[in-house]
Amino acid sequence: MDLIDEYLALLKSLDNLLSKDELRNIQSKSMTNFLISFKKIKGEDVKQKILKCFEEYFQLIKSYDYRIDYEMHKEINLKYIMKIGQYYNYQLGFKPIMRFSTALFFGVVFDVFLLSTGFLKTIYYVPISSLLVLVQNRYIEFFYKRKNKCYGFNY
């Protein structure tokens, strides 16, 4: 059994031990998707960089006994998930995914910006960015989630 299989087995065993929120805090689904597709990554130097990130990630969550608080969750996301996600996005077409409420929030904020600049008046006040962000997020959920090609902050 190689290191990737050990990490996958560990994450699978944590599914039974941790609550849904605790699994979300350790980025269980994102990491599982990364580990499943690791063998498809091209380039030994890239594989070594990703493997180093995996090792650091698993050492970190083990040092906290797999119970990560929200602040550490943010650090894990920025330091490991997004860094690894860039490699997977470039080579394998992985997509970052957002929660519905997060996607809606960003869409509304950008719509308010467009409203303040006067652009929305020209298209009869249609909240275009909210619609686009929500459609894009649903598209990613529908097509990429099934292929295990998603990663994200709360995924």
Q: Could you give the topology of this structure?
A:
Layout: H1 3-17, H2 20-25, H3 28-36, H4 44-63, H5 70-92, E1 95-96, H6 100-117, H7 119-122, H8 128-143, E2 150-151
Parallel strand pairs: 1-2
Helix pairs in contact: 1-3, 4-5, 6-8
Structure, described:
By secondary structure, this protein is mainly α. The chain has helices at 3-17, 20-25, 28-36, 44-63, 70-92, 100-117, 119-122, 128-143, and strands at residues 95-96, 150-151. 25% of the residues are buried. The model has no long low-confidence stretch (mean pLDDT 82).
Brief characterization of the structure:
It is built from 8 helices and 2 strands, in the order αααααβαααβ. By secondary structure, it is mostly helical. The protein has a two-stranded parallel sheet with strand order 1-2.
Q: Could you give the order of the helices and strands?
A: HHHHHEHHHE
Main sheet properties? 2 strands, parallel
Strand numbers in spatial order across the main sheet: 1-2
Helix content: over 70%
Number of separate strands: 2
Strand content: under 5%
Number of helices: 8
Structural class: mainly alpha
Instruction: Give me the Rg, rounded.
Output: 18 Å
Q: Spans with pLDDT under 50 lasting ≥5 residues?
A: none
Oligomer: single chain
Q: Quick one: overall form? A: elongated
The average pLDDT value, as a whole number, equals 82
Tell me the distance between the termini. 27 Å
